[in-house]
Amino acid sequence: MKKYRQTGPSTVDSEYSALLLSWYALQGRDLPWRCTRDPYRIWISEVILQQTRVAQGTAYYLRFMERFPDVAALAGASEDEVLKCWQGLGYYSRARNLHAAARRIVSCFDGVFPVEYADVRSLPGIGDYTASAICSIAYDAPYAVLDGNVFRVLSRLFDLDWPIDTTAGRRAFLQLAEAMLDQTRPGLYNQAVMDFGAICCLPVQPHCTDCPLQARCLSFAAGHVSVRPVKRIRAKVEPRYFNYLIIECGSELLLHRREGKDIWRGLYEFPLIETSQPMEYLELVRTEPFHALFEDVEEWQFLESTLMPIHQLSHQAIHAVFYRIKVDQWSEAMRRLCVVDRSRLDDYAVPRLIERYLSR
Ligand code: SF4
């Protein structure tokens, strides 16, 4: 494995953290989870903020805390309730892991949030970043965080071309982050560097003119700001073609719960026929899954189709079409799905794509 030579320790003096902490005292964001040392609250906020912007995440955080104010409340809820509260945030494995971790805390730690890093790290869904954030912010334990903001700040400050998406690159950045960490106030320092990346050292058009670290920023001096940090692997986006059947019988329609290892596990959706390419309705009715579903239905009425804008996930682009079809009675295969009255649709946690369709 390739190793990256770290910037000499002489350049990582305490002046960096002092400048970051002074900046944070004046410019740091006033967020609802900043006024607590409760590890449960810090954990929930950190998980929500992964892949979610602060503005959107704050509303979810407040709602989540109201519904599940502590570990016991979260552990005592059903997975469906947790997913419903998470609906619209995406990356639903985060919600399932929160739920599983709360249950683990109850069964293995008597319902008390663990204090030791190794115990925190052992919980479902908690990786190095989240464990470091919780332990440093809640307990002032000396663990450096490394998220997208920190990668950007460090790579720019020291003008580093270490790829942030390789194991060797990440390891080298972690060593540097640990060397930078203010050992006396690790929680405060971690929040300061993350906020600095989110507010001042932005991915595009960073505020270099007002930056308190400008005089020490090597990429600013070298004119490399716009090319830091460096990534080696370009993520491939896979197209997928979803044909949803909204089968209506009177006031009822059908849902099914997604299972398996695919996206949106545990969420509800309309019966789905996934195809390897875009498909017209007349082609769709000739497919095997359509026949299986409509096998003993004598007559049905096609009402309308709706082509949705491409639904972009991190590695997938979902091309979805919704077909409304009316039947007079359910077939045997349809009865095996979840028959739901239209007025109760809101009780079910659905993916954002379905939510978007329903709100049209
Ligand atoms: Fe980031 Fe610009 Fe400050 Fe360098 S000078 S740390 S690039 S904001």
Automatic annotation (TrEMBL):
The entry's function note states: Adenine glycosylase active on G-A mispairs. MutY also corrects error-prone DNA synthesis past GO lesions which are due to the oxidatively damaged form of guanine: 7,8-dihydro-8-oxoguanine (8-oxo-dGTP).
Q: Which UniProt keywords apply?
A: 4Fe-4S, DNA damage, DNA repair, Glycosidase, Hydrolase, Iron, Iron-sulfur, Metal-binding
Q: Which GO terms describe its biological process?
A: base-excision repair; mismatch repair
Q: Do you know which CDD domains this protein is assigned to?
A: ENDO3c, NUDIX_DNA_Glycosylase_C-MutY
Q: Which family does it belong to?
A: Belongs to the Nth/MutY family.
Under what name is this protein listed? Answer: Adenine DNA glycosylase
- Positions of the HhH-GPD domain: 48-199
The enzyme's main class, written as a single word, is: hydrolase
PROSITE patterns per record: ENDONUCLEASE_III_2
The organism's taxonomy opens as: Bacteria, Pseudomonadati, Bacteroidota, Bacteroidia, Bacteroidales
The organism named in the record is Candidatus Alistipes avicola
* NCBIfam families on file: mutY
